[in-house]
Amino acid sequence: MKKGIIPFLLLLLFTVVTGCSSKEADAGEALEAAGVEWTEDELSKVDGQVFDLDARTKELQNEVNALLGKPPGTTDPGDGNGQPEPSVPPASGSVFLDVKPDYWAFTEIMKMYDQKIISGYTDIQKFLPENSITRAQAASMLVKALKLPLSDTPSSFSDVKNGDWSRRAIMTVVEKGYFKGSGNKFMPNDPMKRKHMAVVLQRSFELEPTSDPYEGYKDVPKSDDGYLYIQAVSQHGVAKGSEGYFKPYEPTKRSQFSVFLYRALK
């Protein structure tokens, strides 16, 4: 009987692979065929294990992922909106290829991820922690962190279209008074400077300067309009400079903003 089963199973696997690689194949049917339990049960009865089933299953899954536009290794059906969910975290505990357990902001980034405040770039499985965070990205993170209801108000800025992904988050933080634009522009794609980061976090979490000793920073004079905001976030342990410098006009990195927001939430 086994001699009769083997050719049949080979034909079945050939049919599945052909169906997956065909441009006209239906992705949903291919995914179902690749996971048929009956096929695995029958193969387990064949002496000699003609095929390495695990390796073949992964190969078939990757072919299905290619049809669905998902990264290799994705094993779930996605979020239903055409965007694949992040792959299963590796043993190290990281979901991002560029944020390893020994990365200085690993804990804070992963906490933000667990709380769905950040998602990173799921198509490449990276967070890009050293990139500058944009004003639109910071607005989106803040809305999620504070669990603010999204505004339905049309955009009041010439550089934020009503169809933009960030429009509702931007209008939410503007209406709350956490962000302000310049004239009729919000500059959503501009890097968020460290000085402006301090202003936004001070407003969002209502942090006030304390009576504790404060030495200040060499590059933030008292005449600077951001002085009190920087003092507040520093005294509350949200953000600090390095070697006496705050570097107020440097862009805030994505890793830094994740850490600052994590500390403010605590």
Topology, please?
Elements: H1 2-21, H2 27-34, H3 37-43, H4 53-68, H5 106-114, H6 135-146, H7 167-176, H8 194-205, H9 227-235, H10 254-265
Helix pairs in contact: 1-4, 2-4, 5-10, 6-7, 8-9
Task: Describe this entry's structure for a reader.
This protein has 266 residues and is mostly helical. The chain is 43% helix and 0% strand. It is built from 10 helices and no strands. The longest helix is centred in the first third of the chain and has 20 residues. The termini are far apart. 31% of the residues are buried.
Characteristic key phrases:
266 residues; mainly alpha; 43% helix
Describe the sheet with the most strands. none
Determine the N-to-C terminus distance.
66 Å
From the alpha carbons, calculate the radius of gyration and give it in angstroms. Answer: 26 Å
Q: What ranges have pLDDT less than 50 throughout 5 or more consecutive residues?
A: 5-10, 16-55, 67-92
| Tally of alpha and pi helices | 10
What fraction of residues sit in β-strands? under 5%
Mean pLDDT: 77
Q: Looking at the structure, what is the overall shape?
A: globular
Order of helices and strands: HHHHHHHHHH
Structural class: mainly alpha
Number of strands: 0
Helix content: 40-55%
